[in-house]
Specification:
The structure is a single chain. By secondary structure, this protein is an alpha+beta fold. The chain folds into two domains: 3-146, NADH Oxidase; 160-266, putative nitroreductase (tm1586), domain 2 (NADH Oxidase, 3-Layer(aba) Sandwich), CATH 3.40.109.30. The protein is built from eight helices and ten strands. The chain has helices at residues 3-9, 23-35, 82-99, 113-120, 143-151, 160-163, 181-188, 222-241, and strands at 46-51, 70-77, 103-104, 126-127, 132-135, 164-166, 199-204, 207-212, 247-249, 260-266. The strands form two sheets. Strands 1, 2, 3, 4 and 5 form a five-stranded antiparallel sheet that branches. β7 (199-204) and β8 form a beta hairpin. The longest helix is centred in the last third of the chain and has 20 residues, at 222-241. The protein is globular, with a radius of gyration of 18 Å.
């Protein structure tokens, strides 16, 4: 499955069939997690696949997730660009799970953080920004799940003209984006908190500058930082599949002050 196919296949699943991981799937996913590369800005998270048992009732999701027996939980040291790196890494794991035919769902707030933190053994100075259930889904979504997806317009995405620009801040389209077109489209298709889609990308010759809009409170919040990490992963994976390695940096080109500058990818 190509990167683009995997990104299009990924969906947020909140209803699972109570079936524990089979050993092969567990080992395959653990192997991927242990071999995943260092994120763009050097903040390396740690992840663990846990099983929810009848004795671990305190591991809750406030009713948002039903029937999940396994979760991927993680932590990262609180540092500059840590949340972006965490989002980048967890999305890579989620995409691998998608390739394996497993369901997942980003959870940034709707889980009992203290209980999951205790399960992981959260160290001083670490944070647990988000987790995901992982497992075998029920193809028929619950009514409450369908209602939630409708409320956030889960499958809707902003048009290109609102997301991608050239260095003169003129909107780009799939044709004018050239070799970056597929990578831009895969950023556009990414999941985000409340489907806010905070990413704004500016193509500047052989560089792509990543900017962010504010969230509900018009500030660049922790959830938007995770979202930007998701955008990094979709963009980089697509470009790498095309043979473009690139490198990440933080060097504000001061093209616009309309958005919050985050990072730059250079070809």
């Amino acid at each position: 499955m190509s990167v683009s196919e995997t990104i299009r296949t990924r969906s947020s699943w909140r209803t699972y069939n109570n079936k524990p991981f089979n050993r092969d799937d567990l080992l395959e996913l653990e192997k991927f997690i242990s071999s995943d590369p260092t994120p763009p800005f050097g903040n390396t998270p740690r992840f663990k696949i846990i099983e929810k048992t009848p004795e671990s009732r305190q591991l809750g999701t406030y009713g948002f997730i039903h029937g999940a027996t396994n979760f991927i939980i993680g932590a990262i040291s609180d540092a500059h660009m840590a949340l972006q790196d965490y989002g980048y890494s967890l999305e890579r794991i989620i995409l691998r799970a998608t390739e394996m035919g497993l369901g997942t769902c980003w959870l940034g707030g709707t889980f009992t953080r203290s209980a999951f933190s205790e399960e992981l053994g959260l160290a001083e100075g670490e944070v647990m920004p988000a987790i995901t259930p992982v497992g075998y889904v029920k193809k028929d979504r619950r009514l409450v799940e369908r209602a939630m997806r409708w409320a956030v317009k889960a499958k809707e995405r902003k048009p290109w003209k609102e997301l991608f620009f050239d260095s003169f801040m003129s909107p780009l389209d799939l044709d004018t984006a050239g070799v970056y077109g597929e990578a831009f489209e895969n950023v556009r298709l990414g999941p985000s908190a409340h489907n806010g889609q905070p990413w704004r990308l500016v193509l500047d010759e052989d560089k792509v500058h990543f900017y962010a809009t504010g969230g509900r409170n018009k500030t660049y919040s922790s959830m938007q930082r995770l979202d930007m990490g998701i955008a990094f992963s979709h963009f980089e994976l697509t470009m790498r599949e095309k043979g473009a390695i690139g490198e990440w940096s933080i060097s504000n080109p001061e093209i616009t002050d309309s958005f919050e500058y985050v990072a730059t990818w250079s070809n």
